[in-house]
Specification:
7-stranded antiparallel sheet, 9 strands, alpha+beta, 276 residues, 15% strand, 4 helices
Length: 276
């Protein structure tokens, strides 16, 4: 009886090499695509900040006052924001107090909210009414708080005045800030307190493209929220929040190593180019 051996074929080295090359190309394409998306998100934040700076400068040139702070805003047709009439926002016919400060001059930045701080709300509303920004005030989401959305995650832009030293010479300035979702409400804290919005890598990337890439100097300053109070980004942690991971606490004026610190623990403050 003749036995016929069955032939069995495996993959040749050439075939295996081709498969590995295809897998490598697909993996590389995924990584490149992810990097492109990340870069686009950060460029969008930079574009938003530049657009806001331009909007405020245009408003100041046209009306000779800062949005929200105009003493006679009603003379230009500006009105109170709609849909946010509550105990935190008095109706002023859109008029500010004309002191050159967006909001009130307090010891802390954006800490809480009170009846004298309505300019932070009318700031955004008047930019929108003037046709200088397309974003409308998020009044229905955060009553009594001025904010417009950023394209990065659910972050938001707020505006106000800082009177306490944060960073090198960053004091008595009107600023923009990109912040995370509301971390505390009127009902639980009696004010609006924001969470952090960026990782150290994101903050460094944006800072280095706009300013000097250093968290404590220049026109872009990194900060964190500690017990709902904005502090130096490398201030000692009190234990109320996770350890500070925005900046490198072992090296002065540098962001944290993104390979180690991947948590969202930074906020960025941008000094308004147009001051009173």
């Amino acid at each position: 009886m003749n036995c016929r051996a069955e032939s069995r074929h495996g993959f040749t080295l050439i075939e295996l090499s081709i498969v590995l090359v295809i897998i490598g190309l697909l993996t590389g394409a995924v990584l490149v695509g992810r990097d492109m998306i990340t870069a686009a998100e950060r460029r969008a934040v930079i574009s938003e900040e530049e657009g806001l700076q331009t909007a405020v400068n245009t408003f100041k040139t046209k009306y000779n006052c800062l949005p929200g702070d105009c003493l006679n805003a009603s003379d230009y047709g500006f009105t109170d924001p709609s849909g946010i009439i509550n105990q935190y926002v008095p109706q002023t016919n859109g008029n500010g107090n004309g002191d050159g400060i967006i909001g009130i001059q307090t010891g802390y930045l954006f800490d809480g909210y009170n009846n004298n701080d309505y300019e932070r709300v009318t700031f955004w509303e008047q930019l929108n009414q003037a046709g200088l920004i397309k974003e409308a005030l998020n009044a229905s989401i955060y009553p009594g708080v001025g904010t417009v959305y950023s394209s990065l995650r659910q972050n938001q832009w707020i505006a106000g005045h800082i009177s306490t030293p944060i960073g090198n010479g960053f004091m008595d300035s009107n600023v923009f800030a990109i912040v995370g979702p509301l971390g505390c409400t009127f009902q639980t804290c009696g004010g609006a307190h924001w969470s952090e919005s960026l990782t150290s890598e994101e903050a460094y990337s944006i800072d280095s493209k706009i300013d000097d890439g250093l968290p404590n100097t220049g026109s872009v300053i990194a900060t964190v929220v500690e017990n709902f109070i904005y502090t130096q980004p490398n201030a000692p942690d009190t234990g109320a929040n996770p350890p500070n991971e925005c900046t490198n606490v072992f090296a002065a004026n540098s962001y944290a190593n993104p390979a180690i610190n991947t948590n969202i623990r930074c906020e960025l403050l941008f000094k308004m180019q147009t001051q009173p």
